[in-house]
């Protein structure tokens, strides 16, 4: 029992300090790139990247209930505008930033993939820390993820298809394999083996955090030389993409009449992307462009740090300031 309690404590710490861990792995990828070359390889014929992403999505599935989607029926307008913001703001920003900074094709591909992927799973945790509408955040993440096999290839093609050749049908199949099937398996475990799912949820967030950190180290290590030659541009574009996503997500929530807590949730949901998925898709579908995975890897590390800072600002300053104005207990 003491060993289990210790393991749960360790896993909780990993989840809490994921942003710092991601930065450490990013630095390790830069300083000892060969140590993580196996991440870019295969295990039993399956890309290790895809296996890691499947584990992450399975973990997400075990946290969901079919009742999570009931909010669609209760608040269809707000959910619609939230998903619209998710799949408009970040792809639009990706297009604008890629052209504004005249990114080379590989980096442009990576930025666009970050923009066209669904919301990140860590957004739900950050929304909770921000005292936003967690149910709203979970619903947005779930729906944007479930429709990603259609939306991500479609939007990527609309932005890149004319200039960079790729297979949108193949991307659709990849997302179904990497995202949808593991989520369905996770939902099945939650439904038919609830005790197992409850136990797994003590550990899976930490496993997902380590998996994402290894993805970051692998991608960064594989592109080390190119990153060192253009790191300032990559970092600046990633920061702008993320921060502008927060701001525009919040603005859309306000313009469409959402509550304060929902504005907080949309802000975070739009700004925090499933950049791990973007990294995996870059590896599979743009293998000839090693740098295409770099924006996703850098975004994974950065958005967890910025998310933690944003949560602190919301919970300690903005929520208190706007409590009486919006009439909510925040």
What would your notes on this structure say?
The chain is mostly helical and 330 residues long. The protein has one domain: Na+/H+ antiporter like fold (Up-down Bundle). It is 78% helix and 1% strand. The protein contains 16 helices and two strands. The chain has helices at residues 2-16, 18-31, 48-62, 71-74, 76-100, 105-116, 122-129, 134-146, 148-160, 168-192, 194-200, 204-222, 224-255, 260-271, 275-285, 294-326, and strands at residues 42-43, 46-47. It has a two-stranded antiparallel sheet. The chain is globular. It starts with a helix and ends with a helix. The model has no long low-confidence stretch (mean pLDDT 81). This is Bile acid transporter. Keywords: Membrane, Transmembrane, Transmembrane helix. Its main location: membrane.
